[in-house]
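pinging the channel bc i need a second pair of eyes. not urgent but kinda urgent?? the chain im working w is below, pasted from the shared doc
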Amino acid sequence: MKLVSWNVNGIRACHKKGCFYWFFEYLPDIFCLQEIKAGVEQIPEALKAPLSYHSYFDVPKIKKGYSGVAVYAKQEPEEVQYGIGVEEFDQEGRCLALKFKDFWLFNVYFPNGGQGPERLKFKLAFYDIFLKHIEKLRKKGEAVIFCGDINTAHREIDLARPKENEKKTGFLPIERAWIDKIISLGYIDTFRYFFPDKKNLYTYWDQKTFARERNVGWRIDYFFVSPNLIHRLKGAHIFENVFGSDHCPIEIELG
């Protein structure tokens, strides 16, 4: 089973650029999108229910053309949940949870901590509430996968210029500590599970500075799995040569 996650930085813009041809050719079992920046009524018809996929969308309730997530799944889930149960966060359309036979999948667009201290506070509060949310499921014996744009690089190896960014959001110690906490609880950073020391592989590049051409990037997109799924992990991949967004797709494969 192949699961793919991609921050598309606007589903309409990505569609116009033709980057969804990659999706239609690759056909993963589950395809998770973040930052779709569109209401359901604005999504191109070709992407509302493509091919034989079941499609689900969580979009902002107040601010239009912002945030938003989508999931396309070949198999119909047993249950779908929108948001994490806190209005302050759920009004931004940041989380879809799908229950399948063997696991819960969370597709999440985590907040960016920029634009001042209040937004960083919002991001850290979202982190904490989300973790409590999935831990409730895990303590009931459920297997959990969560993926998406976490908006934080974990270690120095995960961005091209760590020293220059150590005081900037996305690489602040307090943000990185949350990922430390996740891992201390047993959740597995799937890419690092297979490639613990791999350098120069990133998932996001700043467009304004043409950073992708120079590979001055950040690895801020992840798949994490709970420890009871480790026996099913067969591979992880970053599709750094797939274009159309300031992020690239990432993947895990389950057996």
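so The chain has a mean pLDDT of 96. and The chain has one domain: 2-254. — does that match what u expected or am i reading it wrong
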